[in-house]
Structures are given as structure tokens and as C-alpha cells.
Amino acid sequence: MAARDGVARRAAKPLALIPLPARVVRHQGGFTVTSATPVILHSGDPASGFAVRHFVATLARISALRLRVTTGGEVSARGAIVFRLDPGAEVAQRGGYALDVSPGGIDVVARTPAGLYYGGVTLGQLLTPDGERTASVAVPALHIQDWPAFQWRGLMLDSARHYQSVADIEQLLDWMSLLKLNVLHWHLTDDQGWRLQVPKYPLLTKIGACRKAVGPDAALTGSPGKPHCGFYTDAEVRAIVRYAAERHIIIVPEIDMPGHAQAAIAAYPWLGVTGKRPAVGTDWGVNTWLLRPDARTLKFVDDVMDEVMALFPSRYIHIGGDEAAKDQWNASPEVRAQMRRLGLKDMDALQGWFTTQVADHLAQHGRTAVGWDEVLHGKVPASTVVMSWHGPAGALQAIEQGHDVVMASSPTLYLDHYQSGLHDEPPGRPDVESLQDVYDYDPVPKGVTVAQAQRILGVQANLWAEYMPTFARVQHALFPRIAALAEVAWSPASTHDWRDFLERMPAELARWRALGIAYADSAFAPAFALSKGADGGIDVALTNQTNFGTIRYTTDGAMPNAASKAYGEPLSFPADKFTTLRAATFADDGFELAASRTQVVDAAALLTRNSDQLDTCSNQLVLRLEDDRPLQGTRPVYKVDIENMCWLWKDPPLDGVRRIALTVGNLPWNFALWTDEAKVVARAKATPAGECRIHEDSCNGPLLATLPLAPATKTKLQTTLTADIPAVSGHHKLCIFATGDPRAGLWAIGKIELIKAP
Ligand code: ACM
């Protein structure tokens, strides 16, 4: 009896809604929707028509429901789904809507088509509460009043470093709208590519839209000799803007200046300071090619802005301003003279003057400039919106100076940072910025008063694309962290609850699966930790990042399923056998949260490490980089400090080990280190090709092995080098480094194996 009461009293399963609505009140009973349930639209306005048709079409993709829309008819039809545009609707906030489910039917009411669109998104989620494609869905009775916490719910897409097709961008816009995100900040120009066609300056795209294929780009273009190219024509931009508008997304274009301008200067060298024509950039980092801050350049910028304003209806136009290294300006007598002529105290003030000229031109046309937070280093009009990426202090300063701000904090909202420490995670920047890191982000910095908070327009995540050569990689980086962002941006802070969010994720993942979104399962994926067991065997602990779901495993080579053994305590295996351990993670209802991962468990596994399992000797500029080869198929990924080719293995057991096998790869150097050049560690080579050296206890400790790199220079693929080592007993730290200068070819460790004497 007590047990049954317990079941009866158990909290109802959370409604699988992301982002969570502002207010939900649940009632007794419900309403069942089938494909025979009519959808009635009470509005003649085309945007409302689109909202409702989009609701029906999306539902058809992720469920078995095939609904039909009719317009007009009775306002309070029973047994129907009714969408109603009503200027007096109860939720007055911008983008808001109310949604009622009662035994009599479902009612979605909003004052604007945007509200109807978002109501449709919520209803779509209510009708797909799990991964089941049932032909009849019982929706619990409830009343939702919903509106966004922030009016700027953004995502920045970098199409300059790697180009995405129009179809891919439209796809992304559609998916953003299903999370109620409403700003796509489109980073269209940078050192490595100018992607916007400007008819008055045809060389911008004729020259500036192509760069030499570097690193894994060669795999993308098909050959190392084929450049990486791409730009968007007027017609394509107009189509994207229209597509976005239908989904209530504003496209905020960014033309980055005066830095990140190398591609523009490659097209028109007179835009630069030196008069020289650089190649379109191929090096990631801070390049020093700056626009010349003179009247001719400003005329060019005005022309470009006129084209931008003709193409993009957005009130906000982003004019960059970040990372404008002043080396060239400082070195130029003309620029220094210009600074003095204007009575400015330094080059930051000159950048402020330049930004002000552009912001004023935009303002004359009724537009508002947005700049990265470096624009605060100079004096710019208070009307300029500041995009805060350096953290809360800058945001506070901007607010105090009267600017509106958008919070886009690095590193938490920089989704080029990878989301787990798993070895199968795609390349990216450390440290890990996890799903929970994004979820826990608070767009309102501490110390901001209620009045000051009004200046925070909203929040956005930035997807820089240096390490995102394909749309699959973009999807992996965005999903699911973009869902956490959506909840931060839309749902009131009072509703935020991390564990509750996780409970709502399986249904969302099921929807994404139906939509064909290549989301990352990193937050749920099983990780294996091997250690020596007390009885001489091998212990394996299984964990996942979120500690959510049940990890299930097999040891017979079969793929784990929802009926496989559930992991509880660490597993023990004999050391003299070879076991294939496979594990995957499942939700309570059997939905696979993370695909199967495989670990071979044998004595050799305890004596093997990949680069993700090693520490780098320093933390100067660590990256996880993809090999440039093979051109087809999976390319290895290495964790490497690009300024110091050196790794540490903390305490490997060396008893009986007499040989070391080191698998290495060589990566092309394509980085701009700017002020970091002096920090590069270059070690003297003993042979022309250099060598890897392995030292015991520290990098200056006894030399255990020298592995010449010459054999590895004969191929672009990975090479395994081996060397005998003297007998050593006990556990000792190993330091492994490559000699030579990383800028002449970056060596990276794929794997190190310690081999015992037979
Ligand atoms: C930036 O990350 N350079 C805005």
C-alpha cells in the first residue's frame, strides 16, 4: 500500500520543453491529438500562416502526426488546435504567447506572429514528449504563459575561417528557431576570407574569398593545391535574410575592422598601411594587417556599409573592432601623423576615432553599430552596442558608459572550445566548456543593478570556425550546448535547474535525431579509466560527464543495448587476457543517450597513452589539432602545445619495460603568434630531421631513449618509432619532447606504448 502511494505521489515527469516556458500551470486531464485533429488558424496575416504551417511541417518530420491546417471558422472550436493572433492576448511581452491545453482542445494565442511561432514550437515539443512516433499523443492539461527573458538570443557563426553553404546556414537557422533563438550574428570577413559580395569592389570576393588550403583544408577541397573558397552573392544573402525572418531571426552581419582585415587588404592593398599585398591569411591567431585609418579607406568602408545596409534590414550592424594589433599603425609615419593631426593620445584612441566614423555613418541611416568590447579602449558613441567577450568587468564598464551590451563571454560561450576530454572529441581549443558550463552561465554579471541590467540586451554563443571545417563539426560543437544557451537566454533565471534540464534532454535529442542533427553525445558518453587491480588484474571505472543516465556494457563484443548489464561498481578483468569492453549510456526509457565506445582491456592497455591522456609540459598555447592526412577517412587528433612540443606521463610503471614505441604525426605550421613568438621553445637538433627524446623523472633527468624523426619525415601519415630503453624499476615520470622549432613543422604524439621484455 505504502509503495503504491509512493508511486502515485511521484512527481509528474517534467514536460520535455526546452527552453522552459516562463510560467506553466498544470491541470487535471488532458487532450489527445491525432492526425485527425484539425489545426485552425485565426489570422489572415502571412507570417502567422507561416508559423502554423511550419509547426505542422516540423511535427511531421519528428512524429507520426500529419496535421492539416484550415483557416477561419469558429474561434472556440472544440476538439481542435487553434492558433489565434489577438492584439489583446493575455501575454503582452514581446515574442510572448499563451498556450492552453484542456479536454476541449488546444489554444495558442499571441499578439504577434513571432509569439504564434514560438507557441507552435512549444506545442511541437508537447506533442513529441519522447522518441516514440505514436499516432496519438495525450497532452496533459495546462496553461502556459511564456515570453523571453532576453530580446537578444544569439549565435555567432564564423563563415570566414570556413565557409558554410547557403543550405547549411538555412538548416542552422531553422534549428535555432526551434530553440527560440533569434539573432544570427554572421561573421563574414576575417584575415582568412572575405565572404560577402560587394559589387563596387569585385576583388573582395575575386581575391579575398579564396585562400591556400592549409592543414586539413586539403581534405576538404580535395587536394593541397586546391584553395579553400566561398562567398555569398546578393541573391543568396537576400534569401538567407528572408528565410531567417520567416523564423523570426534577425541576421546581424559583421564586417570586422580595422583588424582581421588581411583578406580585404589582399584584394586592395591600398586599404592597408604598408602598401604591400599580403596573401589571404592562412594562419590562425592574431594577424597584424590593419586597415589604414584614412579618408580613402573610410570611403571604402562607407560603400561596404551601404551595401550591407541594402542587404540586411537589421537595426544592428557589427563592425568588429577586436584584436586590432597596432604594430603596423605604430610603424607607419603617416598613421602616426594622422593620430597627431586628430589630437589623439594613442593608437587605441585612433581606433576609437575610426570606429566612430563608421558608427556615425550607420547612425545617419538609422542603424546601430555593434563592436567587440575592445571598442571601449577608444572613445565611441554611447549608442554603440558593446559585445562583451572579455568577461563581466568590461560589460560593467560599458554599461556605466551608457552602452547597451550583449554578453558573449569567452571562454564559456566560445563553442570552439571542445566540450569533453574524450579522445574521440573533434579538434578544438582547451579547456573543456561543457554543457553544464554553458547552462550555468549567468548573463547578468555580479554587481549589476536592476536598472543597469536593462542595458543587457541578451546573450550569445560564438562559433569560431578555425577548427570547424565541415558543417558536421559545426553541428557537433553547437548541439547540445546551444540548448543550454537557449534556456539561459529565454527562460527566467528562477526556472533554471540543471538536473531538470538533463531530464528534458532525452526527448530533445530524439527530436534532433529525427531532424538529422549531428549532435554531440559527449555529455553522456562513457569514459574508461583503467588501473591496476589489487589482485594483479585490471580495474575499469566507467563514468560520464553529467553523471546522467545508465551506463550499460558488454564484454562479448556485442553492441550494448537498453537490456545490457548496468554499470555500478568498477569492473575487474584478468591481466593475461584480452577483453573487448563496450559501453553506451541509456535514459530510463531506453533511449540511447550516448553511442557505444570501445576499450580493449589487456596488460598493454595499462602501458599505453594517447596525447589526450598525457599532460603537456607547458600551457602556453595548447590546442587539439587534426592531422592533415590522410585526405580521406578519419584523421588523428593530437593535443599539443604549439609553442612547446613536449609531453609528460606522470607515473608510468617501468618495471620490466625494455622498449618504447612512439607514434608521431607532423602537422603544418599555420599560426600567427603575434606577441607570443618569443615564447616558442625550439630545441637543438642532433640530426637534420630532429629527434624525439624521452627523459626520466623530468625533462632534464636521465635520458632513456632517443628516437630519430628521419623515418617519420618520409611520409605524411603517422609513423611509429621504437627504441630500447635501459632497465628501470618503479614508477617514474616520463618527459617526451621533439627537438627542432615547431614553426618548421609541428610534431605531435599520437600514442606512446611501453613494451615489456618477452
Ligand atoms: C574575438 O574572439 N576575437 C572577438
Identify the notable features of this structure and list them briefly.
758 residues, alpha/beta, Chitobiase, domain 2, TIM Barrel, Immunoglobulin-like, 4 domains, eight-stranded parallel β-barrel, seven-stranded mixed beta sheet, 39 strands, 25% helix, 28% strand, disordered N terminus, binds acetamide
Describe this structure in words.
The chain is an alpha/beta fold and 758 residues long. It folds into four domains: 145 residues, 2-Layer Sandwich (Chitobiase, domain 2), CATH 3.30.379.10; 340 residues, TIM Barrel; 80 residues, Immunoglobulin-like (Sandwich), CATH 2.60.40; 150 residues, Galactose-binding domain-like (Jelly Rolls, Sandwich). Helices cover 25% and strands 28% of the residues. It contains 19 helices and 39 strands. The strands form ten sheets. An eight-stranded parallel β-barrel has the order 8-9-14-16-17-18-19-20, surrounded by six helices. A seven-stranded mixed beta sheet has the order 1-7-5-6-4-2-3, covered by helices on one side. Strands 29-32-38-35-36 form a five-stranded antiparallel beta sheet, with no helix packed on it. A hairpin with a 2-residue loop joins strand 10 and strand 11. It is globular and about 90 Å long. The termini are far apart. The N terminus is likely disordered. The site of acetamide has 4 residues, from loops.
Give me the CATH fold name of the largest domain. Answer: TIM Barrel
Binned, the helix content reads: 10-25%
CATH homologous superfamily name of the largest domain?
Answer: Glycosidases
- Overall body shape: globular
- Give the domain tally: 4
What is the CA-based Rg, rounded?
Answer: 29 Å
Bound molecules: acetamide
Distance between the termini: 65 Å
> With helices defined by DSSP (H or I, 4 residues minimum), what is the helix count?
19
Strand content bin: 25-35%
Strand order of the largest sheet: 8-9-14-16-17-18-19-20
CATH class of the largest domain: Alpha Beta
Largest beta-sheet characterization: 8 strands, parallel, barrel
Number of strands: 39
Strand-pairing-aware structural class? alpha/beta
Quick check: average pLDDT? 95
- Per CATH, the architecture of the largest domain is Alpha-Beta Barrel
Low-confidence stretches: 1-11
